[in-house]
Amino acid sequence: MDLAKDLEKELEATAQEVLGKLRSGELFQSNWDTAAFIIFLIFLGTVLLLLLLVCLHCCCHSCCSRRASRPRKVSPGQEHRRGVDNLALEP
């Protein structure tokens, strides 16, 4: 029971401290605090942008596919290979 009261008092003190800083308009104590917050916002924005791009890629991959609608014809003796042969490795 005593632990719950201590936690409640600590949370109330933290809330009062945050509200006091909001009222005074001094959220950051130094230029380093401001710079760290800006870097955090840039990081968060980058992560959100990447998530948006991943969602767009997954959702629009089937409708925006740039591949040909019909498959290429493969000669009877050839396998379906990708890439380029490295002729320098030939004996």
From TrEMBL:
The segments labelled Disordered in the record are 68-91
Q: Which residues cross the membrane?
A: 35-60
Q: Which InterPro entries match?
A: SIM_Modulators (IPR053081), SMIM5/18/22 (IPR031671)
Record carries keyword Transmembrane: yes
GO BP terms: namely:
lipid droplet formation; positive regulation of cell migration; regulation of actin cytoskeleton organization; regulation of cell cycle; regulation of cell population proliferation
Query: GO cellular component annotations, sorted alphabetically?
Result: membrane
- For this UniProt entry, what is the primary localization, expressed as one broad class? membrane
Name the UniProt key words of this record, in alphabetical order: Membrane, Transmembrane, Transmembrane helix
Compartment(s) where it occurs, according to its Swiss-Prot or TrEMBL record? Membrane
| Membrane topology value | Single-pass membrane protein
Any Pfam family from its record, for instance, is SMIM5_18_22
PANTHER family assigned to the protein according to its UniProt record, in alphabetical order: CLCA DOMAIN-CONTAINING PROTEIN, SMALL INTEGRAL MEMBRANE PROTEIN 22
Q: What is this protein called?
A: Small integral membrane protein 22
Please tell me the species this chain comes from: Neovison vison (American mink)
